[in-house]
Each structure stands twice: as structure tokens, then as C-alpha cells.
Description:
Layout: H1 3-27, H2 42-109, E1 111-119, E2 125-133, H3 134-144, H4 156-159, H5 161-182, H6 187-205, H7 235-247, H8 249-252
Antiparallel strand pairs: 1-2
Helix pairs in contact: 1-2, 2-5, 2-6, 5-6, 5-7
Amino acid sequence: MNTKIMKRARILLIVGVILIILAPLILTRGLGIIDFSNTGQIGDTIGGITAPIASLVGSILVFFALEAQIEANQIIQEQMKVQKDEESQKKQLQNLLDQFKMLREDVNDFSYITFKSDSTDEEKNSVSYLTRTGRDAFRQVIVGMKQYKTKQHLDLYKLNHKLGEVKSILLAMDSLLKQTDSATIELTDKVFLRNLISYQFNSKISHAFDGMETYKASLQKPCEECGKVHIGIPDDLFDIITRIEKQLPESNE
């Protein structure tokens, strides 16, 4: 209960008790102003005098009690809201961390198979398969599009399905950064998540696009037969890279 309300209630209670005690003594003696000394039985007189005072004091005390109860309910509601907000923040943070875990697994597990020709002698050649993962795989896919040659008149993503995987990973990273920025979590948690994402991006992906702007698909010569571009790196990958870089801590300094 509020200390101010308690203080007021105590003062009123003390005043009321004093009035109840003094009223019969004062009003049952002839003081020349009002004389209740000859009014009915003394018990009825005292009761009739003190009852209104006690009733008034009791009513006011009830009012104070209700006021204190309302204030207590407001405090409880505020505490419940704070608790609910804290639970919501924990759920949001856990959800973001789960998404980051999945993203990190996708980045680390990303693989690309290349062919390696080994000349054992002048007459025999053997071809072996080399599986690259993570950082090396991203670089191999992007760099490999510089001189990608094919007779199929297809979209770049259909020609090289690995480009689609790269795009999906980049979009997931971009989305996670946006969710982190809009989430109602502590600032320190946001910074922590951005740093985690920044490490994955800078150490595993961004290097694959370094110096590759001149190989954008829009800058390559279209196919003479269908008029479409079948070489180069899709422009939208560079657009996503730029969006991600703008959201990372280093870009905000």
C-alpha cells in the first residue's frame, strides 16, 4: 500500500477516534451553545452523536482502502507487463539464435565439387573429384562463373544450381540482420548477433565477390542466338551483398 495513503488513513483514524471519544463529553454538557444533556437516554444520545462520525470515518477509510487496492492492482499489472516483455525478449532472442545456428550450418556445409586432372604419364590421364566446403566452395562457385560456357539457353541460376544456394544463404543472412534490427531485445544482444553474422559473412562469403564486379552478368556479351546472358555473375547477388554490408557493424562506424 502507498505510504501516503497509509499516513492519511492513520491521521483520519486518530482524528475519528478522538472525535468519537470527545463528542459525547462535549455535546452532553450545557455549554450555552448546544445542549444535548436532556435528550433521551444517555446511551441513545451518545450513539446518535458518535454513529455519524464513526460512519463517516469508516467510509473514508474504505475509500482509502479501495484507492490503495487500485494502486496495488496497477503495480501488479505493470509487473506482469514487464515480465511478459522479458519473456517476449527471451523468445525473440532464442528464435534469432536458432536462425543463426541454421545459417552457420548452411554456410559451413555449403560444398562444391570440382574436377582435377592428374597426368600420371604421357599416355594416361586420371580425373579425380575434389569437394570444397565453406569458404573455398563459395569462392569456387563465384569465380567459376567468370568464364562459364554452355550451349544451353537457360537462366544463370538454372545453369548453375549452386548459384541458387548462394543466393538463398545470402537472403537468409540479410533477413536475419533485418529481424535483429527490428527485434525488441537488448541492444547488447543485437550487437552480439550482428557480430556473429559479420564473422560468418566476412570470413566465409564476402571474399568470393572481391574484385568480381567486372564479371557481372549485365556487363557480359549476350548470346547471339537467344539474346540472353549465359556467363557472368547474377547482378542481384551483388545487390544482396551490398545490403548486408550496410547492416554490419563495420559499415555503421
